[in-house]
Amino acid sequence: MALISRVGKRLRRIIQRPGSVELTRYEALLPAVEKLEPELEKLDDAELTERAGKLRDAIGGAASFTDSQLIEICALGREAARRTLGERAFDVQLLGTMGLLTGHVVQMETGEGKTLAGALAAAGYALRGRRVHVVTVNDYLARRDAEWMGPVYDLLGVTVGWVEPAHSKEERKEAYGKEVTYGAVAEIGFDVLRDRLVTHPDDLVQKAPEVAIVDEADSVLVDEARVPLVMAGSIDHNDADEEVAKIVRRLRLGLHYETDSEGRNAWLTSAGASVVEKSLGGVDLYDESGSDRLAAVNVALHAHALLTRDVDYLVRDGKVQLINAARGRVAELQRWPDGLQAAVEAKEQVTATDRGEILDSITVQALLARYPEVAGMTGTAVAVAEQLREFYKLEVAVIPPNTPNVREDLPDRVFASPSQKLRAIEEEIRTVHETGRPILVGTQDVAESEELAEKLAKADLPCVVLNARNDAEEAAIIAEAGKKGAVTVSTQMAGRGTDIRLGGSDGASREEVAELGGLHVIGTARYPSSRLDGQLRGRSGRQGDPGSAIFFASLNDDLVLSNAPDLPDGIDADPETGEITDPAAHRQLNHAQRVAEGVDLEIHRNTWRYTRLIERQRAELLEHRDKVLHTGLAAEELEKAQPEKFAELKEKLDDDERLEQVCREVRLFHLDQLWSDHLAYLTDVRESIHLRALARETPLDEFHRAAIPEFHKIIAESASRAAKTLEEAEITDNGLDLEEVGVRRANTTWTYLVHDNPFDSDFEQTVKKVRSMMRMKKS
C-alpha cells in the first residue's frame, strides 16, 4: 500500500504539477527531526546555542547539506521558534525549509508560514558559512521579518540585520556585515549600483554575494525580472515642451490621433498633424527641420493617449508617482525614461523633476544571477515553473498545506458589458454582506477601486479601500479584513505580506465568522496572469479555514479587448442582466489570459537576450574596475605613460597612499564615464535595431555586432584619457585639482526603476516602425 501511495503521489505531481520536485526525500527525514525534539527540549538556551555552534563547526564551508545536517537544522530551528515565538513549526514548514536549503523555489499557500520556513533556511545557510540575503518585495516586509524572526536567529547564534531607504552608508555596511540581511529587491540592487561607483575600497557597503532567498519569488524573478534598476547623475532640469503639451491636450481620439488595440502605440492622423503644425506656427513636422518637434509631439501624445491617471500613475504631493501594476501600490522609486516622465509631468502641470544621465543599471534578473546559490518561496510558483527553469535553472517544490484547503472556488460569472458586471458585483456584495461574512474585493487599479467604493457607499454598503493612495496603512487594513461584516476593496493583493485572519487581528469572532462561511473573495476582472488570480483567491481558505472565491468578468474587459477581441459568433447574453452562460465566453476569457501571459513571456525572453550581453560586458569591466580599486594599477599605468608628470606629482604628494588614490580617482572617473557613454550608445542601437529586420538581418545579431567592438575600446580608452588628464593637469602643492581637469562626478545622484518596455518582439517592433513610417509619408 505504501508503495502504491508513493507512486500515486508521483503520478499526481507529474500530471497536475509540472516542474514539481519530488518531496519523498524530505518527507523521509521528518520522523528523525521529531525524534530529536525531547533531547533538544531538555537543553537550556545557552546549551541550544552551543549545539548550533557545534553544527556550524561541523558543516562550515561545505558545498551542500547532508541529510543528517538537514535534520539537525530543522530540529534546532523548530525548537528555537517554539521558545522564542511560541510557534512549533509544522512538518510542512520544515519541508519548505529543506526545499530552500537544497536550492529550490518552494510553493506554500498563503498563511502556511513561509516567513518562518525562510528564516530557518537562512539560518541553515549561515551555519554553513554563507552570507545570506533574504530578498523581499518591499521595505516594510524586510524590516518586519528581520525583527520578527530576530529572536530565532539569536538563539541559533546567527546575526541578522536589514536595509531600508533611510539607512546611512554606515548603517548599510553594518547590516550587510551580518550573516543574514533582509532587504527589498530594489534596495539591495541600488546598493550594488552604488558600490559599482565608489572610488575607495572603504566606501563599499556590500560583500561578495553568496546566497539569496527570494520571497514572493514568482513576482520578483518573473514579473519584475526585466525591470531595470537605474543609477543616474544630475545633468539639468528636465523641461518638457509645455507648448506641445497644451496642443496635444486638445487632440481627440479618432479625429486627430489613433491608437492600436493593445494601447501601446499612438500616432497622429493627417488631420491631427495639420492641427499640430498650424498650432506650432506652420512648421513641417516631417521635414528634417521639424524632427525635434516631432519627437516632442510623439512623446506628449504617448503621455496623453496611453497613460491614464489613477491607473498608470497618481498625482500626489505635487508629483507624478507611478503605480506598480503587479502590486497595486505606488512604486516609490519608479519612473519612465526621462522624455516620457517629463511629458507626463507637463500633462499634469506639475513641477518637472531633474533629468540625468544613466551612470549604471542592472535588471532584477541580472541582480539575482550574481548569487551562486538562489532559492525562493511563493504561493504561486507552478504556473511559472518553466520560466524559473529557463531563466534561473530553478525547480519548484510544491509543499502541501498543513490542513487541506476547503475553500470553494466558484465558477466565473461573465457579462456582456462592464456596467452590467458592476451591477452584479454590487448585488453579490450586498447579498453576502447581509449574512455577516467578511468580503475582500480585488480590483484592477486605483480608479476602479475608488469607483466601486463610491457606488457601495451610495448603496449604504460602506467599505475600507486599500490602494496606492493609502498603501502605507496596508498592514492594518488587511489585518482587519476578516472581521465579521467587513468589506475591503483592494487593488492587487500580491506581496501584501499580512494574513487575513478570520475574526480580525485579535481573532475575537473567529468561530462565528467560520460558521458563517469564512472570507468571501470577489475578483472584479480576470488579471493578465492566472497567478494573480490565484494570489487573490489564496487570501481565503487560510490554514484550512472555510471560505469562497468568485471572479466576475466582461467580454469588454481590457484583458479581452487587448488580447482576444474577436469573439466567436452566437454568444448571447441574458437580456435583463447581461450575464452570459455560454461556455464559449469562458473559453474566450481563458484564451485572452493565455495570450497575455505569452506576450509577457516573450518580453521577458527578449529582455534576457539583449541584456545578458550587457551584463557579461559589465562583469568583465567590473573585474578590471575592482583591480583598479584595490591595487596600485592606476598609478603604475600613469607612471609608465607620463613619467615626468608622475614624478612631479609624486614629489608634491609625500604620502604614497594619497598618490595612489589620486591616480585611482582619475582612472575610475574615465572608466565609469565611458561605461555610461556605452550604455547611452546601446540604448540608441536598441531603439533602432529592429529596422534591420527590414533588410532580413537578425536584430539581435546586429545588436551584438554593434555592441561588442565598442565595448572592447573602453579599458584602453580609459587608460589613455587618464594619461591625457595627467599630461594636461597643473600640479600644485596639493597635488591635482581634480575638478579643474574635468574629473567631476555628479554632485547629485538618484536611483529609480524604469517603467518601460523597449523589448517587444522583433516582429512587433518592425511592424510598429514600418506602420509609423507609412503614416508619416501619408501625412
TrEMBL record:
It catalyses: ATP + H2O + cellular proteinSide 1 = ADP + phosphate + cellular proteinSide 2. CDD domains: DEXDc_SecA, SF2_C_secA. One of its GO terms (biological process) is protein targeting. PROSITE patterns: HELICASE_ATP_BIND_1 (PS51192), HELICASE_CTER (PS51194), SECA (PS01312), SECA_MOTOR_DEAD (PS51196). One of its GO terms (cellular component) is cell envelope Sec protein transport complex. InterPro entries: Helicase_ATP-bd, Helicase_C-like, P-loop_NTPase, SecA, SecA_Actinobact-type, SecA_CS, SecA_DEAD, SecA_motor_DEAD. Part of the Sec protein translocase complex. Interacts with the SecYEG preprotein conducting channel. Has a central role in coupling the hydrolysis of ATP to the transfer of proteins into and across the cell membrane, serving as an ATP-driven molecular motor driving the stepwise translocation of polypeptide chains across the membrane. Belongs to the SecA family. Monomer and homodimer. Part of the essential Sec protein translocation apparatus which comprises SecA, SecYEG and auxiliary proteins SecDF. Other proteins may also be involved. This is Protein translocase subunit SecA. The gene is secA.
